[in-house]
Structure formats: C-alpha cells, structure tokens
Specification:
six-stranded antiparallel sheet; five-stranded antiparallel sheet
Length: 714
Amino acid sequence: MKNTTVQIKALSGLYEKLPQTQDGATELINWTVDKYTGGWDNRIGYERYNPLPAGDFLPFTSGGATTATNKIDSMFVFSRHQGAMQSVFLESGGTLYQLDENYSSSMTLRTISTNRTIPAANEAPTQYTTYGKWLIVSNGYDKSFKYSAWPIHRAPITFTPYVYDLGWNTVPSAPNPWDVALLLASLNITGQAVSIAFPFQGSEYRTYNGEGLGTNTTATSDTNKYKYRVSFINNAGAESPLSEESRMITWVTEATTAPLGQMKYALYIEIPTGPEGTVARRLYRTKNYGTAAVGTESDFYFVKDINNNTEDAVYDAVPDGALGSLAPDETASILFPATRTRFSAVYKDCLFVEGGADNDTMLFYSKPTLPDQYEATSFIELGNRNSGGITGLHPYFNFLLVFRERGIDAIMGDYPNFTAVPISTEVGTRAINTVTNVPGVGLMFLASDGIYALSSNMEYSDSPGIKQISKHMLKTMNRINEDCLGKACAIYSPKWQEWHCYYPADGNSSGTSPLGVIYHVEKNAFSTRSEFPVTSLARDYIGNIFFGSTNEGNVQPGVFVISKKRANGEQKTVDGIVDKAPPVSTFRSPWMDMGDETVKKHVHFVYLYVLTQGDNPISIEYFKDFYYSGIAAEGRKLQRADHNDQSVYNTAQVVTGSDAPWEEPLATAIRYPIAQGSCSHFQFKINTENDIVLIGYAVEFTAAGTKMIAGKKA
C-alpha cells in the first residue's frame, strides 16, 4: 500500500459513541468557534465585571491574601431601553443586591432584601421574572415580592429599595363610620333650603345643595341605615379583597320647619391604611336600606377613591342616586394563593405562579395586566400525577410550558378560560434554569439523562417534536449529579452564538466543580468547559454572558464576564488581586484506523492546520492501540517554517512609523514527527494554556501490510 494521508477538512464537535466518527473529538475542553475559519479557537477566559473606566470591581474587594467566601447563589440581569439601562441582581449569603452603574467612576452595590433563605442543594435557586417595570422574585420559602429597579435614587438622594409583597397578604380591616349627631336643635340656621350637619366636634356645619345621606321626608319615624366596605389599590393597579362590612350606622330623620327643610348628613368614616405599595383606598357603601329603602343590606356601591395611603378618615356626602357601580364580587380578588411559590411566568398578560412544594400540581393566574390580583376561580390543577410536581414555567410561542419532573404540559387559551394539555409524559426536567430558546434549534433544556430540544410549534403540529440531542455524549451526560440538577443553569448568547449550560457533576454538590457543556450553533456541535466556577448565568441585551462564581480555591468570587481575555478570573495574593492562569484547553482526536483497523500502520507525521500565533509553542501527545500512556512530541511554534515569526496581538511592541504593531494571522500546517512502532489505531492530544486556532489536521502513515483479524484465542 502506498503512503496515505488521512485529512479531516472540517472538524465537528465532541463525539463519545462507538464507533467513533473521524471528524469528531473524544475530548474537546475549553474551546469556541473561530468566526473566520470555522475551526476551534481556545482564546477564551473570564474577567471581572466592571463596565466603567475606573473604580472598584464590586462586589469584589481589593488586596489581601485571604480566601473569599461570598459565593453567588443566584443572578439576573434586568435591562431596559435596549440595554441602555441595566442592573445586575445577585444573591449571596442570604442578601439580594443590585449592582448599579452610576455612570461616573464607580458602581454601587445596593442592598435590596436581607435574611433570605437559600434553597437547598437539591432545589432550584431563587427565580426572577420580569413583568413590565417589575422584577418578581421568589424562592419557595420567603414572601415573593416585586421590585421596581427604576428610577434609581442617586446621591445625594437616599436610596430606598422599592420592594413590595407580591399579591395581597392581608384583608383590609373594616371601616368605622361615626355615629350621627342630631345637631339641628343646637344650631341657629336660617335661610338655607337644604343643609348637612357634620357630626364632628359637636357644632360645625356646612351647606350643600342636593348632597347628603338620609331621607327627605318630614316624618320623624323614618329610619336611615348604611354600611361600608373598603379595598386597597396598589402601585400595579390591583384591587385587594374587600374588607368585612362595617357596623351599621342608623339614625331617624330629623324633622325641620320651613324654610330650612330636612337635615341630611355627611358621615365621618375612619378608614384603614394599606400595606407598603398601596396608592389609594376605595370606599363602598350600601344605599339606604331603612324605612324608605332604596337599597339592600348586601349590595355595596362605589363611593369614592381616596388617592393616598395617609388619610385616616374621610367624609361621605354622596347621595344614593350618585353612587357608582356595584362593588366587585367576593371572588374577584383573594389573598395571594401561593405564599410559597417557587416559579412564575408571564402568559397572555397574566402572571402564572405555581403552588409551591406542598401544592406542586396547582397553577394560579392573575387578572390580565394585574400581577397582584387573583380571582378565586383562576387556577388549574394538573392531572397525571405520574408526571410529578411542577419544576418550572416557560413561555414558548403561543403557549406556556409547564415543566414537571417526568413530563411537560402546555397551557393554552385566553383569560379566564385557560386549559392544560400534556405534551409529554416521559420527558421533563428539574433544571428549569437551563430551559432556553435557541434560534434554529428550539427550546433546549437539560434533563437527568441528557440534553433535549423541543423543536416544533404545537399550534401548527400534531406532535411536540421533543428529542434528545446529546446521545453521542453519553460519558459527559453520565457525570450529571441528579440530586442537584435543580442548580444547573444555561443561557444562549447571540454574540457568541453559543448555548452555555453548567451543572453539578461527578457527585459534587451544587455550586462546586460545575461541568460546562457548550452547544455551538454555527457548527451544530458540542464541546465541554472546565475551570469556570459558574453558579448562575445571565446575559445582557447584546449577548455578553455574565456568571456568578463559587468560592472554590483561591479564586476571587463575584460577577464575571466570559470573554477573550486569556485568564481564569482573578485571585488574591499578598500583592493584591492578580489574573489567574488561562484555562487549559484539550483536544483529543478519535482513535483513527486509517480506513482498515485490521491492518497495521506506521504513523510518521501529524499535521496541525492552524492560524499562526507568534512565539507560542504547542506540544502534542500521541497514543497507540487504546493504550493511554502517551508519548510527547517536541513542541512547535505556530509559525510558518519559511516565514519570519509574526508579531501577535497582546505580545507585540508598539512601533513607530508605518510598521503595524501586529500582523494578520496566516493559515499554515505544523508538522510533528511521530516516533512509535506499528499500530492498528492511532490518537493524538493537544493539552495547552497557549493560544491556538485548530482548523483541521492530517496524519501521514505507511501501511505495514499485516492483517490482524483472528482475534485472541480463549
């Protein structure tokens, strides 16, 4: 057989199945896709988040060789105006912070909520849902609340966190109308056709035309009867449940003599103040149900809005004929029905919340545009208990997907007639923070047995189109720590065109030693990522990927941004905070049989097709016949052999004149000699901290002509 070269022209991604594909990799750690060549680029890292030109890197501290402990337990990026306004929310040690840019020389770390419960290792972390200007925060333990991130009070104005309970947690106390004092006999009133006596301080009166409560008859036996109720209106426009009825106020119409006419009254009503976030109180009253009844004891009508939450009393002089519409039904607003909710989502302008761990097959939904107001009949109880409890909510096309431990339901319809339809009774997930819309792929998420994609719109398809897309990565998926799956997180970045997923692996608990799996949309391929201490993920408007870090090792924890910086974040030393070494990148080829595994071959050279990278040596290690004790080949600069070493960005000296400080990289082949005996299978490995863009590779070999087909004897 003549000399033969096996060349892989287009590298694909990680492939762990047998038999192996010759364009895949059995290990592919810490790579991204090079936009110019389509090859694998290891020039990645992460750095501290600080969008400002100067100032401290909050929540970092500077200096000191100490071990940090402030692990980030959850994180969210809230953007407005196409990213022009942005805040990073992070939770650490039971405190929720807002990391705010004040557009000067520093950032401000503002405390939003303290003494918060951190969910256990087997539970999902704190969840964040945006609803208009509101950020809704829940964790299954503490009271869910909504927070208005804007406007931000800047110095010298004192910052006050705008934190309000989600929904109504208390019923207003009943209003207290004062008794009517019959004051006519004590007042010297002449010349008025109709008068209203105000029953306070014993003597004050005013004159109204046509207003006032009570009958107009001169009969002294006419009895007047009224009751009141009140409700609260909050800053999101929601109306609370109605209070209990007030005590009945009654009096007998006071007869008068001409020309004064009858005395009518303005009642003095003490009203309760509402909880934080109340902007108004709404007063309701019966019509007179006394002797000359025009109303009933049970029908209450709108009287007026008191547009503040400070006044403790008002006067009511609205005659029965001028009252507004009937008060809402008792079922129109109830106390918040999910006090321990964990998950929420917005669908058809309604806020959906699940019932919490103790009521995990129930869904409740608010009135449209009113995230705090829930009707008594606005709930859905999911069937098929075998699918398990609710583990998360996610809007998708014209549906709301309800993820469960072993199933997925779709909520469809319009308020108030929503219905739930099962779309899967086999596939579900407890990793709700991995559910992500990925363009061209669908809805990707991590389950206990791998990565799935829901690729169809059920509105136009009879089947949901759920399929596992990680079957070729069984080894990687088997490393999932199922007990802590709820702590997994994922995000898609249009900037990187990558889906990033990190999950607890290898038996470690949440937040320690996460394993990253990256889906590269451009190549329709996967790689893995290590040395990235990710506990939570978020992205800004343009696609920058932020993550909250663990407190592993001597890494300085806080908020980081994945970038092209060749550093693994920062660490504390006696000299202060310095960059850590860049991540180690690994490429291990498949076991190559050169077309015939039964024939022994002598491999002479491995060619790496790369971009030139200056004075940047790369070594390889090679193996034969499934033995993992390898041989190291001599390192090679990533430079053309017939060309002077190029200057490289970040390493070149700035020069004067017309000379460029660095040069464009060139595609070239780097040859590594292989010194080993014959083999049926051959493999090589790159393991380096140095920069490399791997476009492809080739293997030059000679066939020995010896066939090994009989196998070993028993």
